[in-house]
Every structure is written in structure tokens, then in C-alpha cells.
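User: Could you go from structure to sequence for me? I need the amino acid at each position, not a summary. C-alpha cells:
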């Protein structure tokens, strides 16, 4: 998710990927009625949006992202961690939160949750916030059942 667009611009400039970048041009919670409805992606990157949503909105948000991923596609989430104890800023996300939200029960294959950092304006918290980087795959479509008798 975009903010100033730095991640999107970097990826578009330095890779051969085509990028759709989303911020408050529409509410991601209403993705299915947005101008991008129906498009699907190999990779979705959430940099700093999940932690802006209250816990009740997070499962529906991630379910919407799962629908826009192609089977086998990967979601990366960078979210401010509960290990960040500086005052203020958005709400925090724990490792357990991410493991639950991106669990097999929620339809994901969680690849990892790693301690990371979120780069901020140098005047805010010294330019860094403690974060988690999580990667999870939408499972690839199940192989079609073998024809009867084989
Ligand atoms: C904390 S900023 C992160 C910005 C940038 N991605 C980064 O990594 O620095 C969160 C961004 O999410 C956007 N945002 C928050 N809730 C949103 C929603 N429901 N739909 C679309 N964008 C949203 C905000 O406008 C803001 O730009």
C-alpha cells in the first residue's frame, strides 16, 4: 500500500514488474467494488497498512488481499511490531497476531514472520520503528482429481 509511493516507484523502476499502487484513492476494505476489482496479482505488498486497521477489520482485509492474489502468489506484510515501545504512532501487531491472521485456518501458507524495521522520516523515532516482516502464500490450486479408474 502506497503512502508516498516509494516502494511502488522503486519496484516499477528497478524490476520488470508492472505495479498497481493503492492508497486512499479507495478504501482497501471495499476492494471488490473498486476500479481494480477483478484484477489478480503474483505479489501483494502491504507496507504499513495492516497496523493502521483495528483488529476487527484485519481478517476481512487480509481475506480481500487473498482474493486478489493468484493461486501460489505471495503476500508480504510489514507491520509495526509490539516490540516498538516508543510513544505514539499507529497500533502495533504481535508475532502471534500475524501467525493467527496468516494461518492455514485463515487460508494461508505462512512462510515466515521475521523481526525487521520500518523506515520512517528521520525526525520520527530516529528514523526507524521495530516491525515484523511476514510472508504468506495463497495456496496453489489443488491439482485436478485423477480421472476415475487410474
Ligand atoms: C503508515 S502509512 C504507510 C505508508 C507507506 N506504505 C510506507 O511504508 O511508508 C499507511 C498508509 O495506508 C493508507 N491507508 C490507511 N487505511 C487505508 C484504507 N482503508 N484504504 C486505503 N489506504 C489506507 C494511509 O493513507 C497511509 O498512506
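Assistant: Here is the amino acid at each position, in order:
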Amino acid at each position: 500500500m502506497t503512502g508516498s509511493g516509494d516502494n511502488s516507484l522503486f519496484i516499477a523502476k528497478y524490476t520488470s514488474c508492472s505495479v498497481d499502487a493503492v492508497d486512499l484513492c479507495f478504501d482497501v476494505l471495499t476492494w471488490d467494488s473498486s476500479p481494480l476489482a477483478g484484477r489478480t496479482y503474483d505479489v501483494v505488498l502491504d507496507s504499513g497498512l495492516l497496523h493502521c486497521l483495528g483488529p476487527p477489520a484485519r481478517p476481512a482485509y487480509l481475506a480481500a488481499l487473498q482474493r486478489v492474489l493468484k493461486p501460489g502468489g505471495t503476500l508480504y506484510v510489514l507491520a509495526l511490531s509490539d516490540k516498538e515501545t516508543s510513544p505514539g504512532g499507529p497500533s502495533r501487531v504481535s508475532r502471534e497476531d500475524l501467525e493467527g491472521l496468516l494461518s492455514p485456518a485463515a487460508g494461508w501458507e505462512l512462510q515466515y514472520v521475521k523481526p525487521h524495521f520500518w523506515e520512517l522520516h528521520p525526525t520520527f523515532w530516529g528514523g526507524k520503528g521495530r516491525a515484523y516482516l511476514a510472508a504468506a502464500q495463497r495456496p496453489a490450486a489443488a491439482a485436478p482429481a485423477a480421472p476415475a479408474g487410474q
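One structural detail worth keeping in mind: Residues 1-3, 23-24, 27-29, 47-49, 52, 90 surround S-adenosylmethionine (CB under 6 Å).
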